[in-house]
């Protein structure tokens, strides 16, 4: 089901005290948000956030996991462990994981499948670099990343998934894609899925990510194929994040 969603990707930020302060502000303000709200803290803080979100409508997700149920994978967290913390979502294929940790399309597809095996909704991130955009390769790159996952899991699996279009050049740079630029790519993604299954294409939530802030969220979210945001830096500032979540009102 297509929903308006704002997801916070805290990346590698936070402390117990800082998270407590942030959550106190968010919990006080967000009951009136016109969208679903999801928080993705670093894995070590999942239990703290789980406890602090009890009794609220705010959902919890993870930023990453490893597709083995258990075993000798030092340092990794399994998808199988996440439901114990009431996680409903997990971010897959973020460009930082693709670039810094050399995650391949195939590995990301494996993670997508593993997330769903454990009842988690994958948030699949796709997006082009600055050079790829300049070379007019945006569509090719984004649809290629999507196709790699489709090849493994099939279109039916996208009935319970979220896609996040995150142009790499807009992440953490303060350079936001214009609402028109973002809408154009979102429409390409939805059209592409529509060629395989119209109902799934209509129903899927497609988020935009890349320097979303209080000042630009509303214009982005008004675009017909933008169903919300995956927010990095601005999700660490209570006031900014609350403004973003209220941009649908
Ligand atoms: P920023 O909002 O900091 O640009 O990060 C976007 C992002 O990568 C969310 O996953």
Write the layout of secondary structure elements.
Layout (H helix, E strand, L loop, with lengths): L4 E5 L6 H14 L6 E5 L5 H8 L5 E4 L24 E6 L2 H6 L4 H13 L3 E6 L3 H5 L3 H16 L8 E4 L13 H16 L3 H6 L1 E5 L7 H5 L6 E4 L6 H8 L4
Parallel strand pairs: 1-2, 1-8, 2-3, 3-4, 4-5, 5-6, 6-7, 7-8
The structure holds 1,3-dihydroxyacetonephosphate.
In words, what does this structure look like?
With 249 residues, the chain is α/β, with parallel strands linked by helices. It has a single domain, classed as TIM Barrel. The protein is built from ten helices and eight strands. Strands 1-2-3-4-5-6-7-8 form an eight-stranded parallel β-barrel, surrounded by five helices. Helix 1 runs parallel beside helix 2 (46-53), helix 1 runs parallel beside helix 10 and helix 4 crosses helix 6 (138-153). The protein is globular, with a radius of gyration of 17 Å. The relative contact order is 0.16. The chain binds 1,3-dihydroxyacetonephosphate. The site of 1,3-dihydroxyacetonephosphate has 14 residues, from strand 8.
Helix content: 25-40%
Rounded to the nearest angstrom, the distance between the terminal CA atoms is 20 Å
Q: Strand sequence of the main sheet, in spatial order?
A: 1-2-3-4-5-6-7-8
Task: Name the bound molecules.
Answer: 1,3-dihydroxyacetonephosphate
Supply Rg.
17 Å
What spatial form do the alpha-carbon principal axes imply?
globular
- Work out the strand percent: 15-25%
């Amino acid at each position: 089901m297509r929903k308006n969603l704002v997801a916070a990707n805290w990346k590698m930020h936070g402390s117990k005290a800082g998270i407590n302060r942030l959550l106190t502000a968010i919990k006080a303000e967000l009951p009136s948000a016109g969208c679903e709200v999801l928080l993705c803290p670093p894995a070590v803080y999942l239990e703290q956030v789980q406890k602090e979100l009890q009794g609220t409508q705010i959902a919890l997700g993870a930023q990453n996991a490893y597709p083995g149920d258990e075993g000798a994978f030092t340092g990794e967290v399994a998808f199988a462990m996440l439901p114990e913390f009431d996680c409903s979502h997990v971010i897959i294929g973020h460009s930082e994981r693709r670039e810094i940790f050399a995650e391949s399309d195939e590995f990301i597809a494996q993670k997508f499948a593993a997330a769903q095996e454990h009842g988690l909704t994958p948030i699949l991130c796709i997006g082009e670099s600055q050079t790829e955009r300049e070379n007019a390769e945006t569509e090719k790159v984004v649809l290629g990343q999507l196709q790699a996952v489709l090849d493994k899991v099939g279109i039916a699996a996208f009935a319970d998934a979220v896609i996040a279009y995150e142009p790499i050049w807009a992440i953490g740079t303060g350079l936001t894609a214009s609402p028109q630029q973002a809408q154009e790519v979102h429409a390409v993604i939805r059209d592409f899925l529509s060629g395989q299954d119209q109902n799934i294409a209509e129903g899927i939530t497609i988020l935009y990510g890349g320097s979303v802030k209080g000042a630009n969220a509303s214009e982005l979210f008004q675009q017909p194929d933008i169903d919300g945001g995956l927010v990095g830096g601005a999700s660490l500032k209570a006031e900014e994040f609350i403004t973003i979540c209220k941009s649908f009102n």
